[in-house]
Structure formats: structure tokens, C-alpha cells
Amino acid sequence: MTPMPVPRILVRSASDVGSAVALRLRQAGHAACLQDDPRPPHPRRGMAFTDAWFEGAFRLDGVLARLAPSAADLAALLEGGEALPATDAPFAEALAALAPGIVVDARIHKHAAPSPLRGLARVTIALGPGFVAGADADFVIETAWGAELGRVIREGAARAYAGEPRPLDGHGRDRYAYAGAAGLFRTPRAIGEAVRAGDPVASIGEAAIVAPLDGILRGLTHDGAEVRAGAKVVEVDPRGDPAAAFGVGERPGRIAAGVVAAVAEALRAR
To answer: Are 199 and 147 a contacting pair, CB within 8 Å?
Structure first.
């Protein structure tokens, strides 16, 4: 097989997981770009590049991401080297403009069956359940907590979605607040702020959203984002350490390490 030239890599999703993947790829010397919808509602914004979609630029663990004016500007921003390029252009437009050699679907499909990735790029990498390595993606990365978190899967699928978050200081699903209805999310609060149970944190229309318990805001959807009914919009960390709301987390970091390993393997093989 002919050697693969140094590829551009398009990572889909600016969540804490997708952001960690793009960050680690860039730190490993790869030409990574991030794509997501306009004004994405990901709540763990201190652990992600999400705010670049609202503010135009955002720095995570010392790496700057900058929103490109259009999909056509991605390649030029990538070649400039100053920042990790980001785009809110539709995925198909970003794919056509960048012509990546590698595509990473970092959206983690918990319930809906995803579309196959193979054929979108020379190498395709999928995160979590719903994909089968060797069939609809070249590699799948394990995303479930446990000893195999971040494992590169070359044949077969990742574990099915378990449905329950990993507890923090004894609190699991009870540390989240959810959107009661679809609408415009408004909040005057900031990531890392201390809250008490019952404190008003945000609103959607006339409906108030309150802190579910005492702690710090680890997750908080950006003010002005459109959210769907039932979406996680607030997460309180009961451990109370503001620093825990910022930087790449353990799970995203281990998943990202798996992606970096899969990319290295693909480059060696091709």
C-alpha cells in the first residue's frame, strides 16, 4: 500500500471529549480541526473548546482554538499554525473544504444509530457505541469507564451505553439539571462558581433551573444556546474544587489517547 501523506484530521464535536481529541492530536503534531453546529449546547465548557463557537476563540490547556469565518478558511487557518481551526459550517461543507485524510466522529451516540463513517476519508475513527470496527469505521475507541477506557478496537464494537454517569463524591445523576422544554438557555452564571442546592442558575423561557445540590458548576450550557427538551444543561460537582471544572478530564483524556494511538497505527500501516 502506498504511504499516506501527512493528513488533515477533522474531528466532529466540540464537547469535552471531542475537544480533548483535537487537543491531543494537535499536541502530537497532527493537523487537527474541529467541527460542530453553531452555538453548541455542550455544558462542560471549562473542559472544552465550546466557547470558541460563541466568543470566536477559546484556550484549553494552553492551546488556542479559533473559529474560522467559513469552511473555506479552514485550510488557511490550519496552515497558519497559530490556532486549532474550528468551524460551525455544516459537516458536509467542512468535509468538502478540508478534504481530510482522517475523520473522527467524537459525538458518542448513546441512543441513536449513527451513519457509517467509511468512505468519508481514507481513515475513519469512531468513538463509543453504535459503530463496528472493520465494518462501518476503521477503528472504534472504547468510551465506557473501566480498565478498557480508551482501548483501540480493530474488529467489533465498543460496550453499549450503560445509562448512568460515574459518581462524584457519591452523587451520580442527581448532580445534573435538565432542560424541561426546548428553548433559549439564559444564565448569568459562570463555570467554576459555587452554588447551593436550590440556587437559581439559569432559565428557559419562564422556567427557572436551579442547582440540584451544593458544589461548583462543572457544567453550564453557554448563555444564548438553543437546547432541546431533556438535555443536560447544568452539572454540579459536589467536591467543591473550582479547578476540577477546567482542563481535560480523565475520561476525555484517555479516549483522546486512544485516538492518537489509532492515528499513529493508521499512519504506520498506510
So the answer is: no
Spatial contact of 79 and 60, defined as CB atoms under 8 Å apart: no
Pick the closest to residue 50 from 89, 24, 18, 28 (CA basis): 18
> What DSSP state is assigned to residue 65?
E
Please tell me the total count of domains within the chain. Answer: 2
Domain limits at 234?
Answer: 173-238
For residue 173, the tally of other CB atoms under 10 A from its CB is 12
pTM over 0.90: yes
Q: Are 201 and 217 in contact (CB under 8 A)?
A: yes
| Confidence class for position 161, pLDDT limits 50, 70, 90 | confident
CB within 8 Å of 183: residues ≥ 6 apart: 204, 205, 226, 227
Separation of alpha carbons 26 and 78, rounded Å: 11
Cell digits of residue 57? 476563540
Question: What's the chain's Rg over C-alpha atoms?
Answer: 18
pLDDT per residue as tens digits for the range 95-117: 999 999 999 999 988 777 788 89
Cell of 6: 501527512
Per the domain annotation, does 3 fall within a domain?
no
With the CA atoms of 214, 232, 35 and 205 taken in that order, what torsion angle do they form, in degrees rounded to the nearest 10? -100
| Residue type, position 141, single letter | I
Q: State how far the Cα of 35 lies from the Cα of 1, in Å rounded to an integer.
A: 30
CA distance 264 to 260: 6
Q: Does 258 lie in the same domain as 200? A: no
Whether the CB-CB separation of 61 and 10 falls below 8 Å is answered with no
